[in-house]
Amino acid sequence: MKTLKSLFAQMPPPYARILAAALSLAAGLAVALVFDYLLYRIGLPSKPFIYVSF
Amino acid sequence: MNPPTPHFPPPARYGWIRPRWFLIGLAVGLGSLAWSGWKISRTDYHPGFTRFHSLISPEGNYYPTLDEMCAIVRAKCRPDQILVIVGGNSILLGVWQRGEDIWSKRLQELLGDRFCVINFAFRGGSPTDGGAVVAEALRREFPRQILIINEAPVTNVESFGHGPYRYIFWQAYFGGKLMDAAPREKQVREYLRDNPDQRLPVLETRISIWFDSALHYHDFWNWITFKYFGTVPSYREEYFPHFLRPRRVYPDPEVDGTDPVYLEHHYPVSALDAEMRIMRGLSAFYHREADGRWVLSERSTSDLAMYSNEAFPAPLKRRTLVLISGNSPYYRRLLTEGERAMVRQTFVDTVGIWRRVGYPAMDYGWDYNADDFGDRTHLTKLGGWKLAAQVAPEVSALAERLGYFR
Fold it and tell me: What is the ipTM of this complex?
């Protein structure tokens, strides 16, 4: 995080703004992916189905 | 006074995160995933589908969705063909039969190109699970359809599926894809009234289905799991990293029951008592008259008639062929003559009741031999082929009666 901050500090402001926006966008996409997967996993039964033939 | 020097990053509440861009990313991400899921839900990604074997079924922690199953039907069945969906349990799934020998494949060969047979049976499934739900959901798209289901004699059938496969029913039910059927509504209401512990899980299922109808995440992640990498562990395979393999690479694990290697697995001595108890257990529903006839109790008769009558919506009964599954003669021969007569009567009565309430019904297996069975009730490929030969003319005649050839 510190490296990221210093990277921002060293960058010319327009580039830093673009980078921050791109990273924020990527973070949003990543959270969407994780949230989508969590919804899927929550929807699956927690108990395994073990078939026994009679 | 000098103006303040531009400084980046500006002091912000969220550090380097730009909330607006983050929210745009979140919305675009969810939107893209939902769109992909929606597209996938209308795409068949099971090329050469034969059946839901254990690695691509709830046994393997893979839960095929209703849309996934409907997509298989759309890909396999041409509009000019009569759709024949096989539902039911492990017997019709073809346990002890390899994919290439499976009875439903033989049925397809016997019926010919005018029909399209698709096997949606599940292990431990009931007549109203999986295949039955798909057929009902596709009733308008494929009006010329026949559903084949099976059940044991003197067994009541609930109209809204059961056990691990009920999720398919709920997907169709809460998704508004089923017919209005007052008896089924009543059974659902009574189920929730009599099982208060199920109210919360059903509510959760309803909420989950509501979210899924907007985001289609089940279809999306099933597709990833099937095609690219495992996103859920399978209870049938070793854990990490094995479960990361996509499900498509797993072969159908069902074995050929006629292979001599498996002969000793068919009728193990350890299972004898349990199997005989199941066979003789049917006598609990019967009493014997003085003349030696076995008579089904009034209560069992009325229960069986009521459940069978309400199992499917009235307009769908005529196209539902009910098979009453027989037992291997290996165990039957161990019964006394009187017990055998009782078992025979259970088949006669059960078929009679299903027919009386409006379904075409038949039993099978009574004249099969021990080699036709892989255990008490599952058929080897030999038995499967006999079953196909018995069922094909029934399906053909049913299609004729329903006017499907016109």
Answer: 0.87
